[in-house]
Specification:
The chain is of the alpha+beta class. It contains 3 helices and 7 strands.
Length: about 120
């Protein structure tokens, strides 16, 4: 039997990464996932309203993600793994919608795909 760990790493200042690790015990799976997440770090431009500069779409597998900036004070309106990725990136005012798949890994990767296509 093997375990798969999904880890989201972020500094809440514009860097975030998603990593996956698989091993026969949980500790090694988490270590591999953390190392994989550090290899896949993405820098995200954050506006002064703690949002993103423009609307973006992302895709990974069957998962599709729509992410839109919102006004100051509106909060993070996102669910599942999308919310985790956005909060660890340091984004505090955003609206998102996940479509297609409910798979946590594919939704997290689709979010990273969308965020990596941002231009400031």
């Amino acid at each position: 039997m093997s375990f798969r760990a999904l880890v989201v790493i972020g500094d809440e200042k514009g860097q975030v990464g998603v990593g996956v690790g698989k091993a026969t015990d949980v500790v090694n799976a988490v270590k591999k996932a953390v190392a994989d997440g550090k290899r896949h770090l993405v820098f995200i431009p954050i506006t002064k309203d703690l949002s993103i500069p423009h609307v973006v779409n992302g895709r990974a597998g069957a998962a599709r993600v729509f992410i839109s900036p919102t006004n100051l004070g509106s909060g993070v309106k996102a669910g599942g793994s999308i919310r985790t990725v956005l909060e660890l990136a340091g984004i505090q005012n955003i609206l998102s919608k996940q479509m297609g798949s409910n798979n946590l890994l594919n939704n997290a990767r689709a979010t990273l795909n969308a965020l990596s296509s941002l231009r400031s």
